[in-house]
Write a structure and sequence with these properties.
single chain; mainly alpha
Amino acid sequence: MLENFEFYLFLVLMITMLIMLAKKIQVAYPVLLVLAGLLISFIPGVPRIKIEPELIFILFLPPLLYEAAWSTSWKELWRWRRIIFSFAFVVVFFTALSVAIFANYFIPGFSLALGFLLGGIVSPPDAVSAGAILKFVKVPKRLASILEGESLLNDASSLIIFRFAMIAAATGQFVWQEAAGSFVWMCIGGVGIGLAIAYVFLKMHKILPTDSNTDILLTFIAPFSMYLAAEQLHASGVLAVVSGGLFLSYRSHDFLSSASRIRTVTVWETFVFLLNGIVFMLIGLDLPEIVSGLGDTDIYTAIGYGIAVTGVLVMVRVLAGYAAVITTLIMRNFITVADAQSPGWKTPMIIGWTGMRGVVSLAAALSIPLTLSDGTPFPQRNLILFITFVVILLTLLVQGLTLPILLKKFPLIDRDFVRSEKEIDYEIQNNLAQVAVDKIRNDYANKIESFPILKDQLEKYEHQLSSSEIIINYVEYRNIYIDILETQRSWLINKNRQEILLDEEIIKKHLRLLDLQEERLNLKS
């Protein structure tokens, strides 16, 4: 590996420059990185890059899913749980089934089991792709929450389908009872193991004498521990990481100090930034390796199969979007739904067009063994791999580039958040100032005259100036101020829990501002 160190260093530099360019020209950076990887792969003398599936599943997938889980709003996930779970499990299964039927009928040499294998590989939209592209387009909060929640969970369902299809393709046998039992254990076991390990890490953060550096290290160890433990027990490592990440994110203000929260976010954002860049660059760089494996298969025919499978995926997803709307409109007569209003025809269409595939699909295809247990070549392995690559390329480039155009031509109205962020910011700042004033007057009224600086702070709060510069001269005043910040923090968390339609991103922003105030206090003490 060291003989190509200069090349890898060049790739990191290229990733950094291309992401800056993507921001400048307002294009989702996965698109530019994949194209750059393709172009670099054609340069003579460039080292051949071969993606190792274990590298993706063990080194890349756990931290990427963990960070995505920490960034996901549990409140929004629970609010849209029905549609998220239906897309993450039911729609993934029907997508895999549709691809299986198509491949069985139209691609020579594909049995139904091989079709399911291909379907399990290409059925899940990618969490990394969805998150990266959604940052460059403005969509209603509900749509972003649904897409982010779905992409967190669908890797688990697709990899379960992939495992069962692999067994059926390799052995020619499929026992429904065993498959059903394994599916239940993989789901329930994965969630249970993830929550159990997350609870252990929560206690470690609380009990051990940690500081910011050791807290950050523990957050890096956690996702790998969850994933590996679940996989060792034949449960879903993906569900373990997602459930554990959601739990620790929800409880983060109980066990991390303000300094740890600030620094952990910064470190993880940089780390995931690099991982995402490497992942998409690798997709493009792997093209020569994939094409060389086609052998005698005509490349134009293989490309045609890839385009056709992509069409099936898009069509099924669009139809699933409209089916979800129809189901909601029917079920609103019998149960309480998240929103009883019809979203119109545009929202399902946009949902159908956001199914970008990514490196998890490629890693799954690469993990297909070269030979069966009897030593014969695994049937259609190279064609499955090439079709997967075409699907990833088309969905990233075509859908990724046209999604902003679609949203501009068919703008979606955000019915949940009708007020501007500035209005909500102003209201929350006023409320926080009132919380602080009440806290000082109720609990520290006798200290106001003793500490002129506390009196000054009270006057500033009363004028709604919550970002005042503070000079700390007294340890006791510092403790009072931290107590005020804790009360404000509790008020924000409770407000977030009580108001379903309040954008959690705004709450998180104000929580970070309180963390920064506390950190500034610690630096000056």
